[in-house]
Each structure stands twice: as structure tokens, then as C-alpha cells.
Specification:
Oligomer: single chain
Helix content: 10-25%
Structural class: alpha+beta
Order of helices and strands: EHEEHEEEHEEEHE
Amino acid sequence: MNRYAAEVSYDGGKFFGWQIQPELPTVQQALEEAISKINGRHTPVAGAGRTDTGVHAKGQVCSFDMDREWEPRRLLLAVNAHLPEGVSLMRAAAVRGDFHARFSAKEREYRYFIWNASAIYPHIKGKACWIKPQRYNWGAAAAAAKELLGSHDFRNFCRLEGNEQSTVRKITKIRLIDRRPLVVLQIKGDGFLHNMVRIILGNLEMAALGQISPVQIRELFDTEKSSRSDGGRTFPACGLYLWKISYGEKLWQTGRP
């Protein structure tokens, strides 16, 4: 068995999410079709995270098995030759046989891009969330973000799917960077629930608008006294990027092409 990992970048606006769905274009389907063509048989592909429709990725990671050994750069070029517009392998590497893109991951990093201005450049529309000017205090939102560090029950910060074994997650890094008109949320943790980053943004927006104080965001961790409806909106998918997957080991021997 020859197992490989690849870093995948894609424009989420061109796909109906990561996971294969009947009669809809998805990133996983595009990768499986391309890799299967060069492998000569159907080849399943596992991803580190299941991004929703419209969510982008700079550094998604996938893993798959090939019937013969490939030099990683030749494999990258061969797969890219069969991929549709909007998705590319950026790096590839041979990995150990028990490596799995999802289950071997130690941390995931997401970034969310907000364009806070009265007008937006046409070429970034759909690649960032456009918010027209209001009296946003992004400094207050940045202070609220710091209250989310550590391990907490994020039940009120997600859309429950019914199959969660636990809604406790650990946030190891979170920063809200105000470079208006560009505002960026950088968040890293051991895992994320469905819509968790986008709902976190909705609650940080409440702090930015003065609807809650920065420390009041912690009240949402008390699931006996609060619910999802007490929090902010779910931000649009277009501003969210799966930025980086960390594995506690060096996967890539070379940089991106």
C-alpha cells in the first residue's frame, strides 16, 4: 500500500461543500474522480474537515492510497491535470500507512475575512463577508474573542446535527485583527462543531455593536441558563477559510510550487 497526503486549496463558491452528494459537484468527488483516473480504479479520498457549501480552503488536507509508488511532485501534477477549475493540490507527500487526514490531525485553523466598508472590490466579493459601515467597535469584539480561549462546552455556538458525542472543544488561539476595511478572525483548536466559527463571529458582532459586553459572551457556555437563540447570527459561508491542518509532524518536504 502506498499512502499519500495532499494539501488542497479550493474556491468553495464552485462546490456544494466537501462531502460527496448525489448529482452535486463537491470537492471530494472531484478529487476522487481525478485520482481514480490515474490509479486505474475507484480510489476513496479522506479529508481533514467537511467544509460546507461556499466555504473555501487554503490548506485542506486529504489522504488516499495508490496502487504503485509515485514521486510526490509527479503525483501532484498528474492529479491537477484532471481536476476541474476551482480546486488544486498544492503539495503532496508519501506518508505512513496508518496516516489519516482526519483522525491524525492535532489542530485545525480557520480564518474568517470581513470587508467592513461601503463598497467592495468586485474581485473579492464572494471571497469575504461584506458588512457595510455601522458603529462597529472591533476592539470590543477582540476582547470578547479572548474569553473563548480554552476548553468549553460550545453547544450554543454551533448547529447541532444530532450525532455529537460531545460539544466540548478546546480553542488554543484566537485573534481578531482590525485592519479596516479588512477585519480577520484567526482561530485554532482541536476541532470545530458544525457552523461553530460562523456562529462565534455572530456573537463577536454582538460585542462589536455594544449589544453585549465582552465578558458576557461567556454566559453562552452555561447551557442550563442560555440557548443558541440567545446568541448572534450565523455569518455567511463566503468569508470562511479552512486555513491549516497541523499533525504534530512535518508532512511536507518542500514548499508549494
